[in-house]
Here is the input.
Amino acid sequence: MNRRDWAIDGAVAGGVLVVGQLEVWAGMGATHRQGPPWAQALTYAAGGILLLWRRRSPLAVLAAIVVAYAVDFLTVGAPEGLGVELPTLVAAYSVARWERRYPPWWGLALVLFYSVAWILFDPLDVTDRQRLTALFWASQLLVGSLVGALVRSRLQTSEQRRLRRSEQEQRAVAEERNRIARELHDVIGHSVSVMTVQAAAVRRRLTPEQQAEREALLSVEAVGREALREMRRMVGVLRERGETVGRQPPPTLSEVDALVGKFRAAGLPVEMTVSGEPRQLAPGLDLTAYRLVQEGLTNVLRHASAPGHAQVRITYTDEELHLVVRDDGAPVQGVRAGDGLLGLRERVGVYGGRLDAGPLPDRGFELRAVLPVVAA
Here is the structure.
């Protein structure tokens, strides 16, 4: 328990204690007092103080209250009023809300025993009709248990939803990391293949006297081929069953016009602008930029409500690449991009970039990314 829990329980226990003492000594809330005031006051004080531990040992607290009051009922008779009902009501709620070591029906059994003892030892309940009336007041203790069970159930459901969402996010991140690894394999594998082929081409042009250079280039070729084999083995573990290896080179920003054309053909008017001096980027960064535009436009089609058009802005600066995908669809609750946005953050994080996404003030949604420029 933290300080906040202790403070709440202290306030609850103090409130119940004060109500009980006011009932004994001032008659507030009492309909019938039984026995000497000091005995009644002592019992009510015990009921209030025991509530300090209602979170740590809910069932034990309820059992102690029931025993204390049952002894009082058996000794001097059962009084009527808030001091009799309130401590047990709070304790019954606490058992249903927090008890985890024992079955909750133990709390209901204790409440039932308490109710029967209260009715049987109340000297004012002598007829069946009077006992039925008293049973109505005693049944409110069951309401406390039901409320506690309802609160516990709602909180458990909320926690389960949070855990499921967290699991989905972790799975989405893991899947995106696998995709990034596979795509980087294609990018790096292409570069290593080119290096190996070029080394072989240079080696064939050497003269017989250049034996040392030939051996060095042979070593470069061997290392390159071995690196490619190892990369294929490692990435093969990441590929899903039945997934085929792509033969096409990874897409780049130079192909973004064709990408935008596909979305226009799908019925989404897209306006694209490019500012600054386009440059050749590192292959992995180029692929990441392409995926950002692709995912941003895909989210417009999937999640935007009645978008009129979308905008794609690509801005080159000396040190950064700025990408903006914006639409004018109707605002919706939450983050529209969902798990796809998690994947984009993983991609942007690989290159130390920034990604912001969210609804616009008036209407629409915007995805904005900034990537440090790494020359190819």
Remarks:
- DSSP finds ten helices and seven strands in the chain.
